[in-house]
Amino acid sequence: MKLLHASLCLISLLIVLPSIFAASSTKDFDFFYFVQQWPGSYCDTQKSCCYPTSGKPAADFGIHGLWPNYKDGTYPSNCDASKPFDSSTISDLISSMKRSWPTLACPSGSGEAFWEHEWEKHGTCSQSVINQHEYFQTSLKLKQETDLLGALTKAGINPDGNTYSLESIRDSIKESTGFTPWIECNRDGSGKSQLYQVYLCVDRSASGLIECPVFPRGKCGTEIEFPSF
Length: 229
Prior knowledge:
Blueprint: H1 2-26, E1 31-37, H2 39-43, E2 62-69, H3 94-100, H4 112-121, H5 132-146, H6 148-154, E3 163-165, H7 166-177, E4 182-187, E5 193-202, E6 209-210, E7 223-225
Antiparallel strand pairs: 1-2, 1-5, 3-7, 4-5, 5-6
Helix pairs in contact: 6-7
């Protein structure tokens, strides 16, 4: 009788454990950072930049990435080496990605090395929610919806090399998108603080913007430059 009872307990445990592990594995991140960068600030540093092989990108914010994150400020990375970047899965998006997700790294490239890096480091960690095609398609959709340059120029904040208050930049983006952005700065060749990247947060299902549960570390000055490109 004891042997039968032990066997039944073992069977019950084997039935329950997979469901426990499945439930825990789906909670592999809490939200996304959607990050866009200003090309003028990327290039206006001591390191400079290289235009993609297709030519100089438009003077607009470009996508940097869609990054799964945890609410404690940490993030998963390189989650699935068995699912490498495959450009054939996004062949219908390539022309849009060249416009909206251009590479500025040296040496010049087509952009595929950049997209490969973003998928393999960040995108593979989102596969419980979106596949490779959806990862890039969602990013393109978010860029179009947020229209950062339009939000800034509407508020009289132009990429003209002048300085603007950090507060006015943040407020104009919040006014347009409905959500509070986090602004990242870098420094130009002479050491001046400038608008570099804008972070907005996206819910775990990648269906829409949310208020950020946590912001990255770092800070800008109260007045920052918005360089031309």
